[in-house]
Predict the structure.
Amino acid sequence: MVDEGAKDKIKGKAKEAMGKMTGDRRKEAEGKTDQAKGRAKDAMSDAEKRAEGMKDSLRRDER
């Protein structure tokens, strides 16, 4: 299963490539924006996982 961040990055790469091929600077920019959105989603997901891990670690220490 592909996560949301990866979907945005793949979609963005395709848009950027299409924009470059056709000379459509707007489509190229949209692609770059989608890729940035995907990276942001990945960063949020990583931060959530780290926070969950810290929470679990603290719970273990309390015992």
Observations:
- The helical segments are 4-22, 25-62.
- The mean pLDDT is 90.
- The CA atoms of residues 5 and 42 lie 5 Å apart.
- The two ends are 36 Å apart (CA to CA).
